[in-house]
Specification:
26% of the residues lie in helices and 29% in strands. It is α/β, with parallel strands linked by helices and 188 residues long. The strands form two sheets. The chain has a six-stranded mixed sheet with strand order 4-3-2-5-6-7, with helices on both faces. Strands 1-9-8 form a three-stranded antiparallel sheet. The protein is globular, with a radius of gyration of 16 Å. 29% of the residues are buried. Bound molecules: inosinic acid (IMP) and magnesium ion. The site of magnesium ion has 4 residues, from loops.
């Protein structure tokens, strides 16, 4: 797997240090609020698992799986809920946990859906942000790292479902996805 990586962008130690820092901030801000952490599957599960273990805070966890119909519909903003929340979030404090904000479309429409259920508050924790690719407004309240416009894998992020188990964030060698037809940024 390592031979498919062009460059390590964020090491495992840097990730752990930052996730711990975010958890301390969140624990401080959410004291006595009993938040619901909402992980966006599949990419956010590693970040969420580490984040909640550093959280010295009473909280619950739930997951959503959210997918676009593909390239054309993604640009028109048509998304489909593959797995909905099991928690009734009305009057609850929701913290959405995402792996990466890229175009912003996923997060934008997910937040609309969550807000329609009238939670007490909604905030976003995102591990990574690629602001240069934004197509619609989307912003993290708690952000790990801003990264350049490169396709990254590891720590939950995949290419064609692989590489999620790498403990660091790495840039994939372009020849790994070259010739596969779909640019990786359009996948999912
Ligand atoms: P957005 O809707 O364009 O903001 O896309 C967000 C989703 O696209 C993320 O939750 C990831 O699943 C996926 N994604 C975007 N950029 C990358 C990347 O560099 N590597 C892996 N997945 C990515
Ligand atoms: Mg994702």
């Amino acid at each position: 797997m390592m031979s498919d990586i062009k460059e390590v962008l964020i090491t495992a130690d840097e990730l752990q240090g930052k996730v711990k820092e975010l958890a301390e901030q969140i624990a401080h801000d959410y004291r006595d609020k009993d938040p619901v952490l909402v992980g966006v599957l599949n990419g956010a599960f590693v970040f969420l698992a580490d984040l909640m273990r550093y959280l010295d805070l009473a909280c619950t966890v739930d997951f959503v799986s959210w997918s676009s119909y593909g390239k054309t519909t993604s640009s028109s903003g048509v998304f489909r809920i593959m797995k909905d929340l099991e928690t009734n979030v009305e009057s609850k404090h929701v913290l959405v946990v995402e792996d990466i904000i890229d175009t912003g479309l996923t997060l934008h429409y997910l937040l609309d859906t969550v807000r329609a259920r009238r939670p007490a508050s909604v905030r976003v924790a995102a591990l990574l942000d690629k602001p240069s690719r934004r197509r619609i407004e989307a912003k993290a309240d708690y952000l790990g790292f801003q990264i350049p416009d490169a396709f990254v894998v590891g720590y939950g992020l995949d290419f064609a479902q692989r590489y999620r188990n790498l403990p660091f964030i790495g840039i994939l060698k372009p020849d790994i996805y070259a010739g596969k037809g779909t640019p990786p940024n359009e996948i999912e």
